[in-house]
Design goal:
Blueprint (H helix, E strand, L loop, with lengths): L1 H6 L2 H32 L10 H32 L5 H12 L6 H14 L5
Helix pairs in contact: 3-4, 3-5, 4-5
Length: 125
Amino acid sequence: MDFLLKAVTPRKVALFIALLAALSLGRRYGHYLKAWYLARRYPPVGAAPLSGKDISAQIQNEESRRVVLRYRQVCALLAAAGKRGAKVDGLKAEADAALSLNTPAYRREALRILSRVQFSIPRKQ
C-alpha cells in the first residue's frame, strides 16, 4: 500500500489524465494536423491543369487552322494556274465549298475535298 501511495501522486494523475485527453483529441482531430503537414510539406506545383473542355477547344482550333491553311495553299495554286490561262472557276467554287465545311463534324471531308481539288489543278507542261 505504501508503494501505491508513493506511485500515485496528484501530479502523476494529472499527467495521466492529460495524456488520455491528448490521445483522445489526437484520434479525433489528427487528420487535420496531417493534412496541414502534407500541404505545408508538398505544396501544389504551378497552376492547375487544363480542363478537358480547354484541351478539346485547343484541338478543335488547331484542326480548324489546318483546314484554313490547306485552303490558302490550294487558292494560291489555283491563282497561279489561273494566271497561266487554265480554267479554274469550278475548282475555286469547290474549294470555297470545302472551306464552308470547316466544322468539327465535316472537317475530314473538307480536307478530302481540298486534296482532290489540289490534285485536279492543271499543272504546267
